[in-house]
Specification:
The protein is built from eight helices and seven strands; from the N terminus they run βββαααβαβαβαβαα. By secondary structure, the chain is an alpha/beta fold. The chain has two domains: about 150 residues, TIM Barrel (Alpha-Beta Barrel); about 45 residues, no CATH class. The two termini are about 35 Å apart.
């Protein structure tokens, strides 16, 4: 299971539930979380919901089957923080209390409102499996894994334009460019109409 805001599959016979995609990020960021009481104010309070969700989901299948994707730099829906690097560093240390399958980290902000190096402080403080994402090319990804900066790299938009991405990387082939105008739209354009690598 991954706590990403998607449908979470429960044990057989139980109904699935959906966690809103930005809810945990909203609680963590001081720019969005203006609550008072046990879920607002200090970072420890703002992280309370996240830790409660991890604990609850872990009870279903075990924490070693739970993955977490929280990306403190991403300002989607104007969810920002006054110090996203400090947030990432603190959270990385606290997540060691859970035996998570992985920690997934979007390393930058799609909307370029917030900047900074998230990967270094997270890697320095988090002892579990760390997966990086956003804008990695094959060479940079290989170097990040080889040096221990990351344990794995996830490819997103490059896979949209290159369904045969692993084969292209192995061969050192040119990649099809992704077209953001077709992201999350209906129809084949941008999803199934990219040319495949010749055999």
């Amino acid at each position: 299971m991954a706590i990403t805001g998607d449908q979470v599959q429960p044990p057989a016979g139980k109904k699935p539930y959906v966690l809103p995609r930005e809810l945990l990020d909203e609680f963590l960021r001081d720019g969005a979380n203006q609550r008072v009481g046990p879920y607002g104010g200090p970072l420890e309070n703002r992280a309370r919901l996240l830790f409660e969700v991890i604990a609850a989901v872990s009870e279903v299948r075990g924490s070693h089957r739970v993955g977490l994707r929280i990306s403190p730099l991403n300002s989607y829906n104007s969810i920002i923080d006054s110090d996203p690097i400090a947030l990432a560093r603190w959270l990385a240390g606290r997540l060691n209390d859970f035996d998570l399958a992985y920690r997934h980290l979007l390393r930058a902000d799609f909307f370029r409102q917030q900047k900074g190096d998230l990967v270094t402080p997270v890697r320095e403080n988090y002892r579990g499996v760390l997966i990086g994402n956003m804008g990695y090319g094959a060479d940079e990804a290989a170097q990040a894994v080889a040096t221990g900066k990351l344990d794995a790299v996830a490819f997103g938009t490059s896979f949209l334009a290159n369904p045969d991405l692993p084969a292209r990387i192995r061969r050192g082939a040119t990649l099809n460019p992704a077209n953001p105008a077709t992201f999350y739209t209906r129809g084949a354009a941008g999803y199934t109409d990219h040319p495949a690598l010749n055999a």
